[in-house]
Input
Amino acid sequence: MNRLFVSCAAAMGLAAACVPSVDKDAAEQTIRDIDARWVQAVAAGDADAIAEIYAEDAYMLLPNQLRVSGREGIRGVWEEMLSANMALTFTPNLIEIAVAGDLAYEVGTYNLAMDGPDGRTQDNGSYLVVWRNVEGEWKVAADISNTDQPLEE
Output
């Protein structure tokens, strides 16, 4: 029994040693810095800079639209939105970093305005961004937004 306890304790100690040490505060600040660059790129109308924030295999899910897959497809969506004189701000309310430091998620709110066929459209809502650490760089793996506006009838 004693030998079994020592063996289990040793195995647990080795397993704990395998978990990488992650500076969650630094990772959160890095994501906040990327968010600030993202808002600046929107203001500058720079779809290329925005697309680089996304992972190559990222997903974008916008209200009432089909899912968009991949950085190039997402770049196209941003080009279209930016061409409509888009103004966007967003504020993260929560950024959580996974223990392993490979994933994070961000929850926040956004305000959006853009020109449309019926004039200027205003929207506000909530969003969820899933971040993935790709070779030491945080990249968006999934970008999901949800309008607070009621469905039009």
